[in-house]
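Sample pair:
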Amino acid sequence: MTADDPAANSTDSLDEEIRSLLIVEDDQRFADTLTAEFRDRGYRVEWLDSLRAVKSHKSLDFRYAVVDLRIRQDSGLDVITTIKQRSPTTVVIVLTGYGSIATAVKATKLGATAYLTKPVDADEIERAFLGDETEEDIPIPDEFQSLYRHEREYIEYVLAECDGNISQAARRLGLHRQSLQRKLRKYTPN
């Protein structure tokens, strides 16, 4: 098959549909991290940061969606409802920093497949996408990538705990402020 072959183009389109992901998260740093991780894994990723953005998006036909439970003043539960109304087959994973049984049950009733408590990494989210299916298709990162990812996620977690205050986060991490800033620049996707 050549690139001009319609069968080849339909296969590429199908693969893109299967690996499409919507991230609904108001924390830009965390959203950037997830976006980079999933793009590295071959997903077509879009990021939205509010319920209004989700409602006004032209198409919500994504295979997967990762939705934060609290998006500024909005509820992620409303985001789940909107996604499921417009794309009932989307697999929705809910992320929260404040897990409770009541919201987990509500999210599940609205159509969420899984409910994960932050901090969470891309491997956990991808396993939640698969549910009861086999994990054979999940790429296993080598030890260096795993350590790098772990460091980045921990730094971002501490920074979030310090409400974005780099000086305070650097003190908690035992780093100089400039060292932490260099690390954060290194983690920012181009």
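Confidence is low (pLDDT under 50) at residues 1-16, 132-145.
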